[in-house]
Specification:
The chain is α/β, with parallel strands linked by helices and 290 residues long. It has helices spanning 23-34, 49-59, 67-71, 83-93, 112-118, 151-162, 176-184, 186-203, 208-228, 233-239, 246-256, 259-289, and strands at 16-19, 42-45, 62-63, 76-79, 102-105, 124-129, 139-145, 165-169.
Length: 290
């Protein structure tokens, strides 16, 4: 499935409703506003009046007094609530749904079939797995659309998530657990490496501030090199590794300590845990129905 994200503006008659006014909703609304979408096309509902009103005040979105008010006539409905309350929220939305909106969920561990069932069936559902850098509009988001989604549905969902970073469409929903393990959890992996490098630098005499500045700028520069080059990360690494030099000595130690195997095992553990959480969610739902 191609990446259907677009820089084209959202049509003036498209209303996007957000159920939940947490950090992700705030980031998405701010991203859409920065692209020129008028606040009147963005609605937000949250059980805490102070939270939804603060978001509306800060972003120009419209605060809705209830979920039903927020979704009335909306073309896109973003479910930005905690996974443990998702089933209840979806079921309560069903009587208020009109037309044929596309439902975008940013909740981890809940698959499109569950969402579709809770929403009454035959719904266009897009699962989105953004990561925390989305809060800075530097996110990476994996997207999956169920068979009910039209090309227009996918384009709208892509535009929405592109407001907070890059997007990648996934054809097999089971692979969303891999997306979670790689990009969803991934910022923590890089932050741990940054933390370890800073600690190593301080232990060898650099001040904490000097270590911080050097390591952070190095991480930023390496990421930018990889993003802006047509060469693979491996090719770029080889280019900066002179035979017999300091970088080569570090690379040799990484190899001796089986760095690649460790990374593979860590991502494998995150992937497996994601599958377990998804299965637990299904089992919990099944037991609640009995």
């Amino acid at each position: 499935m191609p990446d259907l994200s677009s820089s084209q503006p959202v049509a003036a008659d498209v209303v996007i409703a957000f159920i939940g006014a947490g950090n992700m909703a705030r980031s998405l609304i701010a991203g859409m506003r920065s692209q020129g979408l008028p606040g009147r096309q963005l609605r937000v509902a949250d059980p805490f009046a102070a939270v939804r009103e603060a978001l509306a005040r800060d972003t120009g979105a419209v605060a809705a007094a209830s979920n039903a008010e927020a979704v009335a006539g909306a073309r896109v409905i973003v479910l930005a609530v905690k996974p443990q309350v998702m089933a209840q929220v979806c079921r309560e939305l069903v009587p208020a749904l009109t037309g044929d909106p596309v439902i975008v969920s940013v909740a981890a561990g809940i698959d499109s079939a569950q969402l579709d069932a809770w929403l009454g069936g035959d719904r266009a559902v897009v699962r989105a797995m953004p990561n925390t850098p989305a809060l800075l509009r530097a996110g990476a988001t994996g997207l999956f659309a169920n068979a009910r989604c039209s090309t227009d549905d996918r384009a709208l969902a892509g535009q929405l998530m592109a407001a907070v970073g890059n997007t990648v469409w996934i054809q097999d929903e089971d692979l969303m657990d891999v997306v979670t393990a790689v990009s969803g959890s991934g910022p923590a992996y890089f932050l741990r490496l940054i933390e370890a490098m800073q600690t190593a630098a301080v232990e060898r005499g650099l001040s904490p501030e000097a270590a911080r500045q050097l390591v952070l700028q190095t991480a930023f520069g390496a990421a930018r090199m990889a993003l802006e080059s047509d060469e693979s990360a491996g090719e770029l690494r080889q280019r900066v590794t002179s035979p017999g030099g300091t970088t080569a000595a570090a690379m040799d130690m990484f190899s001796q300590r089986q760095f690649e195997d460790l990374v593979d095992a860590a991502i494998g553990a995150a992937h497996e845990r994601g599958q377990q959480l998804r299965q637990q969610a299904r089992e919990t739902e099944g037991s609640q129905r009995q």
